[in-house]
Write a structure and sequence with these properties.
The chain is an all-beta fold. It is built from no helices and ten strands. It folds into two domains: about 50 residues, no CATH class; about 30 residues, no CATH class. It has a four-stranded antiparallel sheet with strand order 7-8-9-10, with no helix packed on it. The protein has a two-stranded parallel sheet with strand order 1-4. The chain has a two-stranded parallel sheet with strand order 2-5.
């Protein structure tokens, strides 16, 4: 067998320790532990059970994208403000642009 050099392709993988990869293609993978990848591309659905922490921005490039939720409530919080297009929500105040308090709830 020896050491694999170049790109590796896996049809299926179950990892119980740490999975590190510079370039790997996985048809199916279950990871129970720490995962560290330089780049990971998911071409179908990424299902996550548990808390997900993203340390960078989330970019969506599809022309018409959707964020959907099927539970009974959804909370978006920020230590500062939440801005959607040009509408800014700060606590109980709704503002536009630099005017933070157009409507007070």
């Amino acid at each position: 067998a020896g050491v694999q050099t170049g790109a590796a392709t896996l049809a299926s993988a179950i990892v119980t320790g740490t999975l590190r990869s510079g370039a790997a293609t996985l048809a199916s993978a279950t990871v129970n532990g720490l995962t560290s990848m330089a780049t990971a591309t998911v071409s179908s659905t990424l299902e996550v059970t548990g808390v997900t922490t993203l340390k960078e921005d989330v970019s969506m490039t599809k022309a018409a994208a959707t964020i959907s939720h099927t539970g009974t409530s959804l909370t978006i919080t920020s230590a500062g403000y939440v801005e959607v297009e040009s509408v800014k929500f700060t606590g109980a105040a709704i503002g536009i642009g630099t005017t933070a308090n157009v409507i007070a709830l």
